[in-house]
Amino acid sequence: MTTGPTPPRKQIHLAAHFPGVNNTTVWADPRSGSQIDFDSFVHLARTAERGLFDFFFLAEGLRLREHKGRVHDLDVVGRPESITVLNALAAVTDRLGLAATVNATFNEPWELARRLASLDLLSGGRAAWNVVTSSDAFTGENFRRGGFLDRADRYTRAAEFVAAARALWDAAGAGQRSFAWSGDHFAIAGESTPPRSPQGRPVVIQAGDSDEGREFAASAADVIFTRHGTLEAGRAFYRDVKRRLPRHGRREEDLKLMPGVTVVLGDTAADAQERAAEIRRQQISPQNAIHALELVWGRDLSAYDPDGPLPDVDPDPDSALVQGRVRHADPFEAAARWRALSEEKGLSIRQTVIETTSRQSFIGTPSAVAAAMAEFVERDAADGFILVPHLTPGGLDGFVDTVVPLLQERGVFRTRYTGTTLREHLGLTGTGVERSAA
């Protein structure tokens, strides 16, 4: 009996998220370093490049968050602007993609397209833009027009923003000096951006799980940054987003799904589980548990015991108790879900927050983590992962040293970079200028 050649195994894509200012990072750990020193960015980026990752990913902070009218503790030192940091990192890395989160609500197409095209050109075709939106007037107070945008208009503006930026990049790539765009949100006429980079135009990343966000990703994104707690939830999301692509004239391989995950390694499964539990306890302190609860309930809950039961009062949907952080779209639904979980498992406030706010994590020995990641990708629950370490800047070191070699042995991860641009790393066909803008 003659058998055909064994089909190649589906390849895993990996990226690194610099944790910065959030409740993922364990600041009390003695190994935790600065989140603003350039050396921290360099260490994490070079570790990701040593691990042959596709890209390095920075979040955005447009305003210091507030809690009960005071600056949120985690924001006390602020956050550097992402494109500025990535331009500097372009000089100390060679192949690693450089992804900046930039808000499409509070920026303008020509100016942002020019900044991203400059990063793309200077890095030799390694730039990416993570498109985010906001209807938050609190954040918008930093901007001339006051920042208010109806929630329903966020993605229509973002879609037009991306289309205008792509048209501008394509005009520059075609050697056209002049540029014009007219739509519902923008009317632009001027000169094009810097010359075309080797990858044609920056990769577009989108983060969002609403129906509008999924449709926007299917129409306009090259990568979607998402989060799902189980293999089956990941597979359902994967199927839903991929099935939307044909109506936008796109193929499945045109969009990579990369959930954000944490990884906790141990010498044994029990050791890894123990470490993971301790990390979650450090991330969700008693104070942070009450803060997280107030983000859902929109009420001052400081009188409640973190080790006691959840509040029996309803959320306040119109609360301004927390500013600059995204509340649940339906706080009543979230509160009901938290209560049901708490009652089912007998959980306190802190225990409930720990269980409901954790990302999908891979916990175990390096070989177990490598096997689990390969299964997720093989079974179409993801195309890869964006790793969010709990330590800055050394949180990727163990993964790169132990898990990456095992993925390579399995034949599911590259042993060297075969291209120079981010599009080549991601396996996105062409240069990005052939497909019409969404």
From TrEMBL:
- Domain Luciferase-like per the UniProt entry, residue ranges: 29-378
According to its UniProt record, the EC number is 1.14.-.-
Any one GO molecular-function label of the UniProt entry = monooxygenase activity
Q: Which Pfam families match?
A: Bac_luciferase (PF00296)
List keywords of the entry alphabetically.
Answer: Flavoprotein, FMN, Monooxygenase, Oxidoreductase
Top-rank taxon, per record: Bacteria
The record's annotation in SUPFAM superfamilies points to: Bacterial luciferase-like
Where, by residue number, does FMN bind? 101, 155, 210
Q: Indicate the enzyme's highest-level EC class.
A: oxidoreductase
Q: Which family does it belong to?
A: Belongs to the NtaA/SnaA/DszA monooxygenase family.
Q: What is this protein called?
A: NtaA/DmoA family FMN-dependent monooxygenase
